[in-house]
Specification:
alpha/beta; FAD/NAD-bd_sf; 3-stranded antiparallel sheet; about 25% helix; monooxygenase; oxidoreductase; about 30% strand; 12 strands; 4-stranded parallel sheet; FAD-bd; FAD binding; FAD/NAD(P)-binding domain
């Protein structure tokens, strides 16, 4: 265990992990943020991401979390966001349309590009003096009693050891941190798959026959 009482390792640099890194850094922790994927901000990696167009719905709760960083991230993110004040329901086989607003006082959720949100949060964390962001490193094992972790460099296959007073798992549905925790604590865990899928449609803008968009 490191003698530094404020050393935190965060596994997973998705939107949650990157935002957590900013919050921990604001509280004075030395933050080591590990991500198994390559840096999504690099041009050679962006092409692999931009073929997916699914946006993220950002609610007031999400905006409050961004605002709480003190970095005006809520305002910055919403510069490229789009308010969604309602939804359109397609009823029956004939496709009758029914418009349904989200609230009577103009409440809305906001559509934002998930990849851009993630990039902006990583950049916010990466610019802080007490945050180190390490890509291409996958957690292999963790000793929660000693606060030690072993991560594999996915490029060189080297095993890197890290120490932490606090380990935070933000590594998604198939969490390696959770798997490690299950070896040390009695906890119930279940994972269910819904029977539904999704179909992604690309509807590019075009000029109609009347010359209007």
């Amino acid at each position: 265990m490191t003698t530094n009482p404020r050393n935190v390792v965060i596994v997973g640099a998705g939107p949650v992990g990157a935002l957590m890194a900013v919050y921990c850094a604001n509280r004075g922790w030395n933050v080591h943020l590990y991500e198994s994927r390559p840096d999504m901000r690099l041009p050679e990696n962006k092409a692999k991401i931009q073929n997916r167009s699914i946006n993220l719905a950002l609610s007031v709760r999400g905006l409050t979390a961004l605002k709480g960083t003190g970095l005006a991230l809520d305002e910055f993110i919403m510069k490229s966001g789009l308010p969604m004040r309602g939804r359109m329901l397609h009823i029956g086989n004939e496709g009758n349309l029914v418009s349904q607003v989200y609230g009577v006082h103009g409440e809305c959720i906001n559509s934002v590009d998930r990849a851009k949100l993630n990039e902006d949060l990583i950049t916010a964390a990466d610019t802080m003096d007490n945050v180190e962001v390490i890509f291409n490193h996958e957690l292999k094992r963790a000793n929660l009693d000693k606060g030690t972790l072993e991560l594999e460099n996915k490029i060189t296959k080297e095993i890197v050891k890290a120490e932490a007073d606090l380990i935070i798992g933000c590594d998604g549905a198939h969490s390696s941190v959770r798997n490690a925790l299950m070896r040390y604590a009695r906890l119930d865990f279940s994972q269910e798959y819904i029977p539904h899928g999704y179909c992604e449609l690309s509807i590019p803008p075009k000029i109609g026959t009347n010359g209007q968009p």
